[in-house]
Amino acid sequence: MFYNRTESYRHSFGKPAEIFIEKVYGNNIHFPCCGLLLDVSPRGARIFTEKDIFEEGSLFTGVFKINHEKIKAQANMVWKTPITGGYLIGVQWTKDQIREILIADELESCIEIR
């Protein structure tokens, strides 16, 4: 079996991190929303939100912390599933190598090696 080195790994949090989501409609009208970052990788994430502000292909900005590093990333909603109390959404971060490295480094520093 070959290992696919281009495939992103995901890190799940014991206690989900908060994410502040800001969606822009038309002429700079912002629609802020908070959610929980259930898991994250350098290329995407799974988020829980109580509000249904996303349509497939929606673009938004998310701000969240991994360890003590505040990360701001633009994302595209890929899928959405309604669940009790809200929605699970899958997002793909827009291409940014520096942000991908930052997320990977922060995830590595919070994983304990035994």
TrEMBL record:
Residues 33-100 form the PilZ domain. The lineage of its organism: Bacteria, Bacillati, Bacillota, Bacilli, Bacillales. It comes from Planococcus shenhongbingii. This is PilZ domain-containing protein.
